[in-house]
Amino acid sequence: MDTLFSMKDVVTILKKSIIWIVSFAIGGVLAAVLALYFFLTPQFSMNTQILVSQTSQNENAISQNAEVQANLQLVNTYRVLIKSPRVLSEVEKNMNEDYSVSELTSKIEVSTEQDSQVINVTATDKDPEIAAEIANETAKAFQKVTPTVMKVDNINILAEAKPAADTTSVSPKPALIVMIGLFGGVLLGVVIAFMRNLLNNTFKEDKDIENLGVPMLGAIGKLPSYKSAEVKGTGEKHEK
Q: Whose CA is closest to 5, among 14, 215, 202?
């Protein structure tokens, strides 16, 4: 069974359509740059660290170790509690209800390291100052609500979020967006090149006629498009 395109056909099509492919690649890069400057809003992330500390000063090493293990097991519960409506409604109130609970939920991420009693609260917003405020207010609200809900008072704020002058955005990533635009443009150019070849119903080779079951009687070569010097000279004389 004959393949749709041979390797030779592929190379020929790509060579003939190189201008199309390059044009679409440049267009893809320009589209990516325009999207970065006019349509995609930079997002900044600020991080607050919370420490789940020991609840007592027991000098017994075995008791201390058991308490640490208990605190580690509670960390997953604390992660859920931080993003609960009970805590986020407190954040909403402290921020003058500028953001709803659902909006705060989408802006906050909670993470922990393995076997660590430190909880990271990361808030993301287009304004780094607002992102830092959300992260800090969430930590404070969690510290306030935990003693009431969990009946323990072992939450301490280890480090507050503080935006710096050189804070960089976490998204979008310009290099990645431009690479996607370039790849998309090249891919679109290649697809259009092959589609143009498939939709072209002219005969390109002898085998195209043979596939129709019609005998080929002969072929006419392409004539040169230039005139000889004698013809040019004759023409000039006639013009005079």
A: 14
In the structure encoding, which two tokens stand for residue 188, read together? 């679109």
Q: How far is CA 105 from the centre of its chain?
A: 21
pLDDT in tens, 132-191: 999 999 999 999 998 888 887 888 999 999 988 778 888 888 899 999 999 999 999 999
The DSSP-derived string for the chain is ---SS-HHHHHHHHHHTHHHHHHHHHHHHHHHHHHHHHTPPPBEEEEEEEEE--SS----HHHHHHHHHHHHHHHHHHHHHHTSHHHHHHHHHHTTTSS-HHHHHHHEEEEE-TT-SEEEEEEEESSHHHHHHHHHHHHHHHHHHHHHHHS---EEEEE-----TTPPPSBS-HHHHHHHHHHHHHHHHHHHHHHHHHH--S--SHHHHHTTT-------PPPP----HHHHHHHHHHH-
pLDDT tens-digit series, residues 40-98: 889 999 999 998 875 555 555 555 566 666 666 778 888 889 999 999 999 999 999 89
What is the Cα Rg of the chain in Å? 35
Q: For tokens 């058991």, what's the residue?
A: 66
pLDDT value for 30: 96
Task: Give the orientation angle of helix 7-16 with respect to helix 18-38, to 10 degrees.
Answer: 60
Q: Which residues contact 202 (CB under 8 A, 6 or more apart)?
A: none
Nearest residue to 53 (alpha-carbon basis) of 160, 161, 157: 157
d(CA 57, CA 154): 12
